[in-house]
Amino acid sequence: MTLAPETTDLRIQLQLGDDWLTVCDLTQLTPGRGVAALLPDGRQAALFRDRNGELYAIDNRDPFGGAAVLSRGLTGTHQGRPFVASPLLKQRFDLETGQCLDDEAVRVTTYEVRAR
User: Where do the Rieske domain residues begin and end (predicted)?
Assistant: First the structure.
């Protein structure tokens, strides 16, 4: 069976200060996979869409290894909370809060995200 590609005019936006930045089309987010977006200040955000359609955005930089790789991590849930596991050392980061689930002293930035 052939499935029709998803079509939508919705754009993903991140809140940066008082403004919203359009970063990509919703169709570029495959459930369970991340996408990196370059921000105006040179940082990167990792964007995720889960299988229920929820959107998440966190800093793409792994605080343990320093590389911008979180968008390439594996997604899952732990006690009902969505997370991404870094492809470097496998630390898990809560997609809603940015809290590292493996080291409570570490957290990554989260961004408010919407589809418009």
Answer: 21-116
At residue 26, what are phi and psi to the nearest 5 degrees?
-55, -35
Burial of 102 (0-12, 13-18, 19+ CB in 10 A): middle
Condensed to tens digits (0 to 9), the pLDDT of residues 4-36 reads 455 568 999 999 999 999 999 999 999 999 999
Residues whose CB is less than 8 angstroms from the CB of residue 69 and which lie 6 or more positions away in sequence, other chains included: 60, 62, 86, 87, 88
What's the pTM value of the predicted model, to 2 decimals?
0.91
Structure tokens at 85: 């596991």
Dist. CA 114–CA 116, nearest whole Å: 6
